[in-house]
Amino acid sequence: MVGIDNYFNQLWDLFCRMNPQAEGIHRLLAERGEVIVNDHIAFRTFDDPRVDIEFLARPFLKSGYFPQGEYEFPNKHLFARHFEHSDPQRPKIFISQLKLREMSEKLQEQATEFIDQISPETYERDDFCAMGRPWDLDYATYEQLVQESEYAGWLSAFGFCANHFTVLVNNLRTIDGLEELNELLKSNGFQLNSSNGEIKGSPEEYLEQSSTLAAEIDVPFSDGSHHIPSCYYEFARRYELPDGEMFSGFVAQSADKIFESTDRRET
Ligand code: NI
What we know:
Layout: H1 4-18, H2 20-30, E1 38-46, H3 53-62, E2 65-73, E3 78-85, E4 92-98, H4 105-116, H5 120-124, H6 139-148, H7 150-158, E5 164-168, H8 178-187, E6 200-202, E7 207-211, E8 216-221, E9 224-229, E10 232-238, H9 252-258
Parallel strand pairs: 1-4, 5-10
Antiparallel strand pairs: 1-5, 2-3, 3-4, 6-7, 7-10, 8-9
The structure holds nickel (II) ion (NI).
C-alpha cells in the first residue's frame, strides 16, 4: 500500500497540472508567510459499484479514515459522503457520485461503456484516484454528456483525480476571513465562482465556502484537443458548534452551488 501521504502528494501534483491556478494561489499565500492547511480533497465518480464511493474510499479507510456525513443533491442527481481521520491535521475526504439510474438510458450506457474499459489491474491500484481518465472519449460524446449533466461531462473528461483541494481559511494568520481572501484573490487576477454569491453558507451554518472558477485547459480527446474547464481551488472557513467543537461537516445547499465551478461558461 502506498503511504497515504504519498498518495496525497500524487493527487496534489496531478491537481496542479490540471489547475495551473493552484500553484499561483499557493505561492501568493506562502509569500505572506502562510502555512496552508488543506481542509478537504474532493472526488467525483459514478455510482456503478465498480467505481462508487465505497470503492474510491478503500485506500482512505485502510489508512484510518472513517465515514462521517452523508449528503443528497437532488437537482444534480448526486449523493456524497465525507470521511475524516482521527488526526484532525489530515484533510477530510469528500466523495460524490452520480446516480446513474436517475439519468437517461443513453448516459447510463455510456458510463457503463467507460467503466468496462478499466482493466482488472487498474482496479487493484491503491492510487486509483490519481490516474486521471482510464477510458477513451471523443469530443462529441463529451458535449452530449454535458448537455444532460455538467458533472457527467466533467467526470467523463477527467476521470479519477482530485476535483479540488481546499484551503482552511481559519488557519491563515494574515487574512481575516473569506471576504478578505476573496478580495486578495480577485486583485491578483483569479476569477471566483459567483453562482449564488461568492460566499456560500454562513456562520449560522458553521461553514462558509468560496471557490475559484475552474481553470480551462487543453484536454486530449480521441479526436483532438479541446479547451474545457478542469479543476478549481476552494476556500473554507469553519465555525465552532455551540458545544465548542469545530463543525467538521458540509452544507449540502452550499456544496450544490460549488459543484458549478466546473460548468462550461459562455466566452
Ligand atoms: Ni469542497
